[in-house]
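We emphasize that the prediction below concerns an isolated chain of 127 residues; any contacts that depend on oligomerization or on bound cofactors are therefore not represented. The input was used exactly as deposited, without trimming of termini.
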Amino acid sequence: MADAKQGDRPLSPHLTIYRPQMTSVSSILTRISGNALIVAALILVWWLLAAAAGPEYFAAADAFVSFWIGEIIFILSLWAIWYHFLAGLRHVIWDAGAWLEVSTAEKLGWICVIGSVVLTVLTILVI
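Result of the prediction step, given as a token string:
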């Protein structure tokens, strides 16, 4: 049974005093980008199924995808693809046992964030 008397036990650091580290932020971003890609893939599959179902279904799906919210979703998905790719490369480097120092790990996190933004902008300009 749990001890009801917890007076002198220290509490875990709360968000008000905890400073997020780049390694934890990049880990969270990797999870968020992976889940966001699932949502974008479902929208893409819906769009393709609507194209196969007929012109009236495709018109509705295409209107959503062509609307500003659909374009934002796919631009953010493009960023998520690049971020997820760069984060995967970072993990391959770490799996090889290289660049595991804290300062280098933080630099790799910033490279993933900045690199994914730059690659997204370059991809949009090329397409």
